[in-house]
Amino acid sequence: MSTTTKAIHPAIATLKLPKQVPALITYAQGITKALTGNTAFPSTTPTLAVVNQAITDLQTAETAALARTKGAVAIRNEKRTALVTLLQELQRQVQTAAAASPETSASLIQSAGMGVKKTPVRAKRTFTAKPGAVSGSVQLVTDRAAARAFYEWQYSTDGGKTWISAASTLKASNTVSGLTPGATVMFRYRAGTKTGEGDWSQTASIIVK
Fold first, then answer.
1. Which of 17, 28, 58, 202 is least buried, going by the fewest C-beta atoms within 10 A?
2. By the 8 A CB rule, do 80 and 64 touch?
């Protein structure tokens, strides 16, 4: 008997870079502080010394720009770009470490002073079976799997021991007729798209009217 282990995907490291220079400086300082003495990152590329120097350079350039020194704004912008580039290099290193340890990737990323990208929660597909318009029929409805998809439908009258195929459809609904009123019938479906066929869905049961 074989078992299948679900793969654990590493968390994604993100940089929430402020647009304003003073806030960016504070943000960058937070990252270098978090990485200083961090045992998960005994060394970094670029080094923290290089990043801290880039922060200092940007602080100096920002002061000159606020003083309206001639040409200071262009220099300030260059220093900002240089710092952002270094932070992005640190982000890639943190992501590499996260990929190597997916089980602890989220906490590892946060320990580096970076954010964790939120993974969108996919709502479970809605699959319902309800009485059809005429006796002995059942209407099946589910969510669309894709803009272009086909759907295979099956039903079982013996508690799932055996399955009978109903007509396939190009829409996410179907009506199965000719069932015995009063019988408990289980239904399932699977969708197929250009990437291939999916797994069979969970079952939906109904007492036929």
1. 202
2. no
Q: Supply angle C-alpha 18, 20, 23, rounded to 5.
A: 65
- Residue 122's pLDDT is 58
| pTM recorded for the entire structure | 0.57
For residues 166 and 154, the answer to whether their CB atoms sit within 8 Å is yes
Strands 128-131 and 164-165: unpaired
d(CA 5, CA 8): 9
Statement to judge: residues 149 and 64 lie in one domain: no
Residue 148 lies in a domain: yes
Look at residue 69 and tell me if it is in a domain.
yes
Taking alpha carbons only, the member of 166, 208, 207, 157 closest to residue 189 is 166
Give the number of other Cβ atoms within 10 Å of residue 140's Cβ: 24
Instruction: Please give, one letter per residue, the 3-state secondary structure of 73-124.
Output: HHHHHHHHHHHHHHHHHHHHHHHHHHHHCHHHHHHHHHHCCCEECCCCCCCC
Residue 85 is assigned to a structural domain of this protein? yes
pLDDT in the model for residue 7: 56
**Residue 185: inside a domain:** yes
- Cα–Cα distance measured from residue 94 to residue 108, given in angstroms and rounded to the nearest whole number: 8
Tokens describing residue 55: 């922060």
- Answer yes or no: do 40 and 107 share one domain: yes
Percentage of the chain surpassing pLDDT 70? 93
Q: How far apart are CA 99 and CA 96, in angstroms?
A: 5
